[in-house]
Amino acid sequence: MAIIIELDVMLAKRKMKLNDLAQAVGITPQNLSVLKSGRAKAIRFSTLDAICQTLNCSPGDILIYQSDGDENE
Q1: Which of 17, 33, 37, 62 is most buried, judged by most C-beta within 10 A?
Q2: Using CA atoms, how far apart are residues 63 and 27, in angstroms rounded to an integer?
Q3: Cα–Cα distance for residue pair 19/33, rounded to 1 Å
């Protein structure tokens, strides 16, 4: 996968639990868990905006691009 989700890293930096973020953003903990684990196929910009506002970060702090060639190195 070319997009790496580092939501767990940002949650740890902010000392916030997944359930607290889910409640603040207004989505279910299960849906946030799918995103955190990298199993999500898409994310709404409004959800990404709410996550970034809550965690006081930018999308680049939680979404990292990695080319397919980098996975083997």
Answers
A1: 62
A2: 18
A3: 9
Over its length of 73 residues, how does the chain's per-residue pLDDT go in tens digits?
Answer: 589 999 999 999 999 999 999 999 999 999 999 999 999 999 999 999 999 999 999 999 999 998 877 555 4
SS3 of the chain: helix, strand, coil, percent, to 5: 60, 10, 35
Exposure of 47 in the CB half-sphere (CA atoms within 13 A): 16
pTM confidence score:
0.86
Q: Which residue has the tokens 């080319």?
A: 67
Cα 20 to Cα 55: distance, rounded to the nearest angstrom = 11
Beta bridge partners of 65: 3
DSSP assignment, residue 69?
Answer: G
